[in-house]
Amino acid sequence: MNLSDLFSQEVFTLWGFSITLSALVFLCLTILAMLLTYNYIMRRWLPGYFGREEVNDEKQAKIKRNIKRSYLLLAAIVFLLIGGIDYPIFAYGASENSQSLYISTILEVLLIFQIAQLFDWIFSEVLVHRYVVYQKEGDKDKKEGEKLTASPPRQLVQPVMYILAVILVLDQLNIQYELFTAFGKSITITNLLVAFFILFTTRLLAWIVTQLALFSYYQKKEINLGTQYAINQLLKYVFYVFAILLSLEFMDIKLSIVLGGAAALLVGIGLGLQQTFNDLVCGIILLFERSVEVGDILEIDNMVGTVKSIGVRTSQVETLANITVIVPNSKLVGEMVINWSHFQNRVRYKVKVGVAYGSDTQLVKKVLLQVATAHPKTMKRPAPFVRFADFGDSSLDFELYFWSREMVAIDDVRSDMRFDIDRLFREHKIEIPFPQRDVWIRKTKE
Fold first, then answer.
1. Please, are residues 76 and 49 in contact by the beta-carbon 8 Å criterion?
2. d(CA 103, CA 221)
3. How far apart are CA 133 and CA 131, in angstroms?
4. 325 near 298, Cβ under 8 Å?
5. Which residues contact 109 (CB under 8 A, 6 or more apart)?
6. What is the pLDDT of residue 359?
């Protein structure tokens, strides 16, 4: 008996299926390889991953249970396929295209979702840990409220993994269900899921590039917050446009057909929504021109606030009273806006005060400069100075000028100075007069 005949001999019968020696040997080698990889993952790779990404105990237990279930399902599938004992459960589909659903197919579907859940947890933990580390590093050189924030990546990874799992399941079951017809093309459920997969994957990649990959570049080049935001937004727009074009291509819909069919509709929409399209174009201009950036202090129609975000159509400005105002982008581009922090992050302010006639003006000047110099929120360079503004009706009018980088809470700074001025004036016997009028009463003959 030669070796070929030996391996083709039947060893035993299971559920009516014949198990040969070659199938048994191959099955044993495969199971042995799976046990070795399982041992390496559980004893070597997972402890290093848990320590590096700082995974909590509850999530560690979930990941370990998931890996165990995945290996059990994989072992069962290997046993059924290699042993040739896969058993059909029932048939589905039309009579002319009838297909059988096997036990291994059900196990493969369960395995696909187990792996999707596992990768969802692993990638989410990796991205969350990197995100938290970078946010902490960014906090070292930024003031409170100045940090560029972004949503955590858990909700970005999950749709990508589960949509991919559904696509693989449909392909495994060979299900091609037509949903509707668009532009003369039949759109199946798989086409639609692939399009969603491309869009969600693009969203995840855009987040990784803007929040993780470019972070070290921003830190190295010391790029300010507004420029970071502009670069991130422009990259997102490029990613999304590419994703939409790729999704249309996968659904076999040509862009020229879409534009041709929507031309009349776009004209009607454009006439009715001129202001909206104007805001959209102005939003792109702001991101490219960067005359207004995130973090800038603006004065619009006597309203002072900090720019929190610049969207495609509108921007959000937070006022000094912590009220968020939605401002159309066309207002920031087409109208006069005062940007306090456009070129230099400092502004000159003044505090006005009047003293009684006969006061020592040099002493008044000395006291005012002392107040400005002593305040921690004022700049030493350029130095504060005092201007003798005018001879008023009831007082000698002075103006104290100083520079400060504090823009949002500058009213508190000026309030502190007024308290100090009042206190020092009392100590030096400098009088702040109230309005006075001399009244002459003339008596006339009747």
1. no
2. 58
3. 5
4. no
5. 169, 172, 173
6. 92
Dihedral sign of CA atoms 47, 52, 55, 59 in order: negative
Q: CA 71: distance to chain centroid?
A: 36
Strand partners, 355: 396
Residue 207 backbone phi and psi in degrees, to 5: -65, -45
Nearest CA among 293, 296, 297 for reference residue 410: 297
Residue 374 neighbours by CB distance under 10 Å: 12
pLDDT in tens, 229-246: 778 888 888 888 888 888
What is the rounded CA–CA span in Å between residue 174 and residue 303? 61
Cα 160 to Cα 196: distance, rounded to the nearest angstrom: 9
99-102/324-328 β-pairing: unpaired
Is pLDDT at 143 greater than 60 in this prediction? Answer: no
As to burial, measured by CB atoms within 10 angstroms (0-12 exposed, 13-18 middle, 19+ buried), residue 135 is middle
Instruction: Give yes or no for a contact between 330 and 275, defined as CB atoms under 8 angstroms apart.
Output: yes
Spatial distance between the Cα atoms of 219 and 44, rounded to a whole number of angstroms: 34
Separation between Cα atoms, residue 192 and residue 252, nearest integer Å? 11
Instruction: Report the C-alpha dihedral over residues 224, 226, 227, 233, rounded to 10 degrees.
Output: 140
Q: What is the largest CA-CA distance in the chain?
A: 155
Q: What is the rounded distance in angstroms from the CA atom of residue 338 to the CA atom of residue 182?
A: 49
pLDDT tens column, 116-131: 888 888 888 777 777 7
State residue 150's pLDDT score: 46
Peptide bond into 88 cis (omega under 30): no
User: Residue 236 is encoded by which pair of tokens?
Assistant: 């997102």
pLDDT (0 to 100) of residue 144 = 42
pLDDT, residue 127, reads 78
- List Cβ<8 Å contacts ≥24 apart for 212-216: 212/127, 212/130, 212/131, 212/134, 215/134, 215/137, 215/138
Residue 146 has pLDDT above 50, yes or no: no
Summarised one tens digit per residue, pLDDT across range 251-267 is 777 666 555 555 555 56
CA dihedral (118, 121, 127, 129) in degrees, to 10, reads -130
The answer to whether 211 and 150 have CB atoms below 8 angstroms apart is yes
| Residues 167, 309: Cα–Cα separation, whole Å | 36
DSSP string, 359-414: --HHHHHHHHHHHHHH-TTS-SSSPPEEEEEEE-SSSEEEEEEEEES--TTHHHHH
